[in-house]
Task: inverse folding
């Protein structure tokens, strides 16, 4: 596996692949790989003939209250793991390589950035859209793979690709979960054993809503499903609901009725310290 740090070099490499007629699949990441990332890499390998992973902790998607410096990093470990998955190249630039001191451009999506996680993280999704645009331009992939756990990020990137006519197919990978239902996340490593147990209430809240919806005698309204999930989570000590909502998985528009595309999405703070998100289809 090639490790690349320079933009010119990644342009040259992927340009060469294109000339050879390779189908390039990109997995954009911020590193600190867990099984979720490795599954994205496996899916990527099955979708093309060259797999490239980018590893870049993007400073412009962190807010002033979010600790960029504390974001976990271990390039050697990540490099080994990507290599074991048969990835062809890992693009891991330093921040100065991606952002010149004069950098001042933002790619900004209006409606889709606003609700859910966007409400609490102003500027975050502009930072994501901007870096993903840069990564797409540098590596010109045919396909890019993103996890469905970041529901809003995935919907935003799909929208951006359509709006800006990127000739790139966006593929979502289903959420990877522990046996007990906890969605994999780099942030799980911040949880104590007791907090990890408490954190199960996120997936359980979605599971309960889904059971209610799938019950054929169900007449529960969307508002009641949301209220039920909030009450369930709040009954767990140390859990503070950031939001619980039911939206269309593509547009993120709030739903008034439940259909095949209705997703319950939620964010919960555990002991005021670790903010976790999860989502799941209701039908
Ligand atoms: O999901 C992530 O890890 C990041 O938001 C992404 C897509 C790599 C952009 O920095």
Result:
């Amino acid at each position: 596996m090639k490790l690349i740090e320079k933009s010119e070099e990644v342009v040259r490499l992927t340009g060469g692949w294109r000339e050879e007629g390779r189908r390039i699949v990109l997995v954009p990441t911020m590193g600190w790989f867990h099984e979720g990332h490795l599954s994205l890499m496996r899916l990527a390998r099955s979708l093309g003939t060259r797999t490239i992973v980018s590893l870049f902790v993007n400073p412009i998607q962190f807010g002033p209250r979010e600790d960029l410096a504390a974001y976990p990093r271990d390039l050697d470990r990540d490099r080994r793991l990507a290599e074991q998955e048969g990835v062809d190249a890992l693009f891991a630039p330093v921040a100065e390589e991606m952002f010149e001191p004069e950098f001042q451009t933002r790619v900004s999506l209006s409606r889709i950035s606003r609700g859910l996680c966007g409400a609490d993280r102003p500027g975050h999704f502009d930072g994501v859209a901007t870096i993903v645009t840069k990564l797409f331009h540098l590596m010109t992939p045919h396909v890019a793979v993103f996890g469905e756990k970041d529901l809003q990020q995935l919907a935003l990137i799909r929208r951006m690709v359509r709006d800006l006519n990127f000739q790139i197919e966006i593929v979502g990978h289903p959420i990877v979960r522990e046996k007990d239902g906890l969605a994999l996340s780099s942030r799980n490593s911040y949880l104590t054993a007791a907090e990890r147990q408490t954190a199960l209430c996120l997936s359980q809240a979605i599971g309960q809503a889904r059971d209610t919806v799938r019950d054929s005698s169900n007449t529960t309204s969307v508002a009641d499903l949301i209220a039920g999930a909030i009450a369930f989570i709040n009954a767990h000590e140390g859990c503070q609901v950031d939001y619980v909502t039911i939206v269309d998985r593509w547009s993120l528009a709030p739903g008034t009725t439940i259909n095949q595309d209705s997703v319950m999405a939620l964010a919960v703070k555990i002991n005021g310290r670790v903010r976790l998100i999860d989502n799941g289809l209701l039908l």
Summary: The first strand starts at residue 2 and ends at 4. The chain has two domains: 2-173, 186-278. The two ends are 41 Å apart (CA to CA).
